[in-house]
């Protein structure tokens, strides 16, 4: 019975981490609402989950604010750029899917390839922004190389994100409360392992 109220109990640790992920999900949504701040908000999300995934416990809200401030200036243009590219590719996919004939099929296939590469880069770009102190050109280059070189892990990150959203939307709605933080946490587990190979240190503590 003593172990039940012990804060080191695995159940309580799990509940604590789940609460942290739910709080992170809420903070990410709140700070992404202006749209222009979606970049620094995503970097701040990964700033915290990369630490959580590495069992570096701390104050979740305070760490999120710290990560947001640290990545505000570089994160805004990266976030806006990512949003515009995503909208552009989405519109192209819709447009080319409605064009009949070989030309439409060819354009659609090319756009699908570009969209896939864009999505792969996106899963590394903001975690790298949270972790590395370098310019956006190097961030994009590193994100591209890492996403291609570790294609299997990249695919797993995409699949876990889709699964979180699908379960939340069609099976268990409450999971959506922690879906964003949960997906980022799983990504961070993978990313921490990959980043060690590149010996990338935290840009700030």
Characterization of this structure:
By secondary structure, the chain is an all-alpha fold. It is 78% helix and 0% strand. The chain has eight helices and no strands. Helix 1 packs across helix 8 (179-198), helix 2 (38-53) packs across helix 8 (179-198) and helix 5 (102-131) crosses helix 6 (136-149). Residues 201-205 have low confidence and may be disordered.
Q: What percent of residues are in strands?
A: under 5%
Helix content: over 70%
Structural category: mainly alpha
Uncertain spans, ≥5 residues at pLDDT below 50? 201-205
Largest sheet: none
Helical run tally = 8
Q: Kindly provide the radius of gyration, computed on alpha-carbon positions and rounded to a whole number of angstroms.
A: 18 Å
Order of helices and strands: HHHHHHHH
3D shape: globular
Structure summary, number of beta strands: 0
Protein name: DUF624 domain-containing protein
Transmembrane segments: 21-48, 72-96, 103-126, 153-186
Keywords: Membrane, Transmembrane, Transmembrane helix
InterPro entries: DUF624
């Amino acid at each position: 019975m003593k172990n039940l109220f012990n804060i080191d109990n695995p159940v309580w640790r799990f509940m604590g981490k789940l609460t942290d992920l739910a709080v992170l999900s809420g903070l990410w949504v709140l700070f992404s609402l202006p749209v222009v701040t979606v970049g620094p908000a995503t970097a701040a999300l990964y700033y915290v989950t990369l630490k959580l995934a590495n069992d570096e416990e701390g104050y979740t809200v305070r760490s999120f604010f710290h990560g947001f401030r640290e990545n505000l200036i570089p994160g805004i243009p990266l976030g806006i750029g990512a949003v515009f590219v995503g909208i552009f590719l989405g519109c192209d996919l819709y447009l080319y899917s409605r064009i009949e004939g070989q030309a439409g099929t060819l354009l659609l296939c090319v756009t699908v390839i570009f969209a896939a590469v864009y999505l792969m880069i996106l899963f590394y770009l903001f975690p790298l922004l949270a972790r590395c102190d370098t310019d956006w050109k190097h961030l994009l280059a590193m994100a591209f190389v890492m996403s291609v070189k570790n294609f299997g892990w990249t695919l797993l990150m995409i699949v876990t994100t889709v699964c979180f959203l699908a379960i939340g939307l069609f099976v268990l709605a409450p999971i959506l409360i922690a879906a964003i933080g949960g997906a980022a946490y799983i990504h961070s587990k993978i990313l921490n392992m990959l980043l060690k190979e590149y010996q990338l240190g935290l840009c700030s503590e």
